[in-house]
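Appendix B. Worked example

We walk through a single record from start to finish. Start with the input: the chain for GHMP kinase, Arsenicibacter rosenii, length 331.
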Amino acid sequence: MIIETRAYARAGLLGNPSDGFFGKTISISVRNFGASITLYASPELIIEPQPQDTNEFRSVYHLRDAVSTLGYHGGVPLLKAAIKKFVEYCEQQDIRLHNRNFSIRYSTSIPRQVGLSGSSAIIAAAFRALMQFYQVEIPLPVLPNLVMATETDELGITAGLQDRVIQCYEGCVYMDFDRPIMEAQGHGNYEPINPSLLPKLYVAYNTDLGKQSGRVHNDVKSRWLKGEELVVATMADIADVARQGREAILTQDIELLHQLINRNFDLRTKIYNISDRNMSLINTARACGASASFTGSGGSIIGLYRDDAMLNRLFVELKKINARVIKPYIS
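Next comes the structure step. The output line below is what the pipeline stores for this chain.
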């Protein structure tokens, strides 16, 4: 029996990054890109490395470029951490696992280090494969917590729940991470939104080499924990953008949604340092008449466009700064 599972890239539409601050967000799955897991029974447990996991390089420059885009260890540590966290969860739930072994390998088409959540997609797909192999059901609201804990607890990656929720639920989801809700049930309230209600959306991402993610939120998080007024108030305002955005989507107020996407990013600039490269993405898209905000921590943007003429302008202008534009496939 061969098990094949998949998880998709994601883009934060509104409220990003308030998910790590008891806020609210709206995210979409971007099915244009995905991570796949293949798992099959074997005499021993084997994690099959992929070309990006190699320790052989053509030159020091090849090594530099590989580390810049893939990190230091590739995808194998993600699979090891996912398997470990899955086994620990089953032990905590008194779920007895059969003793058959398996081989597991991954592949991914998700551009790395541009804020489309490639690492968590590999982990989410791995959990789905393990659940099938061992015939274990993990409640859907709980699964994002385990995917995130795999990254934060096992690999030391700074991560929020938003990405993991949308990769587990897929489609379009409004997420409420209000503190009393989180403390009462251990996870947020997750409300799927019919993707057919969404307006014309584009996603654009850098095709230049990126940098490893996971460190962007550290300073803001510490300032928020200290109660710095600017950070606390701004993060609350970012969360409220998502609340308003939910209503705008449901009532089909496209102009308000356009404004909210821009406001989300503009609020972010009050507390985060934005690189020239990322500002160029935002400014180029807005100069075309589109709205623009980060999909994650930087490297890719999302927004609304009005018509095909505007979309074509986005293709042309963003290509000039080494960025690729796609229409996200969400359903």
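Two observations about the output. The chain has a mean pLDDT of 93. The chain has two domains: 2-193, 195-326.
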